[in-house]
What we know:
Helix content: 40-55%
Bound molecules: zinc ion
Strand content: 5-15%
Radius of gyration: 21 Å
Shape: globular
Number of helices: 10
Distance between the termini: 26 Å
Largest sheet: 6 strands, parallel
Structural class: alpha/beta
Low-confidence stretches: none
Amino acid sequence: xxxxxxxNTSKIVLILALLLLVSSVFxxxxxxxxxxxxxxxxxxxxxGSYNVCSNFYLNVFCKSGKSKNQIAITFDDGPDENNTPxxxxxxxxxxTRATFFVIGHKAEKCPHIIKEMIEKExxxxxxxxxHSVVFDFYTTSKVLYxxxxxxxxxEKISKKKIExxxxxxxxxxxxxxxxxxxxxxxxxGWSIRSLDTIKKxxxxxxxxxxxxxxDIILFHDTKTLTVEILGDFLRLCKRxxxxxxxxxxxxxx
Length: 253
Ligand SMILES: [Zn+2]
């Protein structure tokens, strides 16, 4: 669905609906055509929320158009006591830097893993404190609390300023947008979703093997499958002559 301009499309549909509403008052058109248009409008709003790169409610960085053979690999939902140390070891073997969008309450339980990420010069990002399944329905103040609690915690452990945020499930909405206006976090999406949490190895590989300059790849450091596939992926990047950088470097290119 990317790169539809959801914002402009939704405005056009809304204006059309209003025009039809006026027309229907004067009996020019049947009343039900307005229902159809409002339905289309709702669908656009829904897609705009659930497509992280729609830029519907806020600007999300999903890939770099200017990168010269650079890509970024990102890991969400950790740190995981079991799998994250293995991921860190593989990255270290390949002398590669990644970006980790960590969940606050998990970071609180294993600060040693966060410290190791910083020691190895990986970049840390905020992925909310609780990663609740109902995060999309949170009020602005509740979203803000999730962001700030995680930032304070990560900055205390890492002694680094946290500048990047990835919304859980890639969902954006007006409340999340309002909360983000109150702090300076930049929102990061992805251009390749590995689907490592739900798909089998073969499918994941066919998705990530398409990697090209400027891409941001979404992995999860909570999954054994990701540990199994990472080495092969890093070798593929080497063959494709793609340099792996952290999100801040990719944004600044
Ligand atoms: Zn997540």
